Amino acid sequence: MSENTGNEAAESQAAADGNVRDRVFHPKILTTLSDYNLPTFGSDLMAGLTVAMVALPLAMAIAIASGAEPGAGLVTAIVAGLAISAFGGSRIQIGGPTGAFIVVVYDVIARHGYDGLLVATLMAGVILIVAGFLKAGRLIRHVPEPVINGFTIGIAVIIATSQISDFFGIDAGKLPADFIPKLAALWQAHGTWSAASTVIALLTLLLIVVFRKAAPKLPGLLVAVALTSAAVPLLGLDVDTIASRFGGIASALPTPSLPAVDLDTLHTLLPSAIIIAFLAGIESLLSALVADRMAGTAHRSNTELTAQGLANCISAVFGGLPATGAIARTATNIRAGAKTPVSGIAHSLFLLGFMMLAAPLAGMLALPALSAVLVLTAWNMAEPQHLRERFRGDRADIFLLVMTLLLTVLADLTIAIGAGVAVGLMLRLRRRKAPEPEWKVPER
């Protein structure tokens, strides 16, 4: 039996005898550092570097799609990612900005400005900390899986739609926030599409897929974005870059400060804060489950919620975005050989080093290339390989999934989650004699 497997077996025994996993706050790093050694550090360091190269373009792409400055995504990956690894209840989870937040973040910024987002993120952090101390970690698992699948697919549809203008180089100006009017505006401006932007986006998409198949250990996402972005100035292509649209990326973390808060602001932003907290809780525990299944570990759900709350409070203080456990980056971390939370801390420090030493290079990244990254992210979120299976299940579950999906896309994420959870609980009461279904671990 390996050293890590032995540690996890001991932890499982402790969970049975002393309720370690049900403690309010017991960071995993305290367990893993008790017998830490140099070979483990080497494995964590290389895994941290690998996942940092994946997180670098993705964090900026998520920030741009959310209506924020690209640097905000880097700041979030650095400060929130470090906090999630240092204080979290999962051995090898990676935290940072994720695609699940794009819809709600875009909406909050559009309605209340970036300062409003910071307040909502800070409030969400407090809600998550309270949820952790109330031992709500396992309660989130009672959210019906069709609701999770429905709003995840809905978010994927919205993300993909939001990338049409950059992917095809369409100059549509400021797009409406609502789905149908956005499609109408894009169609009206379809004559402005850019062949160069489209080629760069398609080539980036193709390279990412090829690298994942042919060289899975290579940071294919970063390499693909770098190659196609480098082609833009070399070939003299008229393609938007981060620098041409947003200016340069800061080479240091912003000075921490608390956003201005008053009672009216708190009342106005409370629904958004609840949604951010809900998404962070769901996504972080899903990601922790992925880590458990892949690495044979056992996460501490209450500690994880508390850590997510601390991370979101810290992110807001540094001017960052909402953060949570990132499923794809966590999987990358595990495949790269991560052993302990030190790999996540290393990932954040590598990103900080890039920000301090090579921020001007980020300005050269082509927006169609980053758009391709998000299109692929949306595809992975939707998990199309499981659609047939999901539509062969119980009719009530299919109805719940479709209802949540349509409300997410056509109405509002708050309405979608509220209605989905309410209807799901009613269906659960109707089938209360049946055993509760176990969550299926997503592959995205």
TrEMBL record:
<dbReference type="InterPro" id="IPR001902">
    <property type="entry name" value="SLC26A/SulP_fam"/>
</dbReference>
<feature type="transmembrane region" description="Helical">
    <location>
        <begin position="269"/>
        <end position="291"/>
    </location>
</feature>
<keyword id="KW-0812">Transmembrane</keyword>
<feature type="transmembrane region" description="Helical">
    <location>
        <begin position="45"/>
        <end position="65"/>
    </location>
</feature>
<feature type="transmembrane region" description="Helical">
    <location>
        <begin position="72"/>
        <end position="94"/>
    </location>
</feature>
<feature type="transmembrane region" description="Helical">
    <location>
        <begin position="398"/>
        <end position="427"/>
    </location>
</feature>
<feature type="transmembrane region" description="Helical">
    <location>
        <begin position="218"/>
        <end position="237"/>
    </location>
</feature>
<feature type="transmembrane region" description="Helical">
    <location>
        <begin position="146"/>
        <end position="170"/>
    </location>
</feature>
<keyword id="KW-1133">Transmembrane helix</keyword>
<feature type="transmembrane region" description="Helical">
    <location>
        <begin position="349"/>
        <end position="378"/>
    </location>
</feature>
<dbReference type="GO" id="GO:0016020">
    <property type="term" value="C:membrane"/>
</dbReference>
<dbReference type="InterPro" id="IPR011547">
    <property type="entry name" value="SLC26A/SulP_dom"/>
</dbReference>
<protein>
    <submittedName>
        <fullName>SulP family inorganic anion transporter</fullName>
    </submittedName>
</protein>
<feature type="transmembrane region" description="Helical">
    <location>
        <begin position="190"/>
        <end position="211"/>
    </location>
</feature>
<feature type="domain" description="SLC26A/SulP transporter">
    <location>
        <begin position="41"/>
        <end position="404"/>
    </location>
</feature>
<dbReference type="Pfam" id="PF00916">
    <property type="entry name" value="Sulfate_transp"/>
</dbReference>
<feature type="transmembrane region" description="Helical">
    <location>
        <begin position="114"/>
        <end position="134"/>
    </location>
</feature>
<keyword id="KW-0472">Membrane</keyword>
<dbReference type="GO" id="GO:0055085">
    <property type="term" value="P:transmembrane transport"/>
</dbReference>
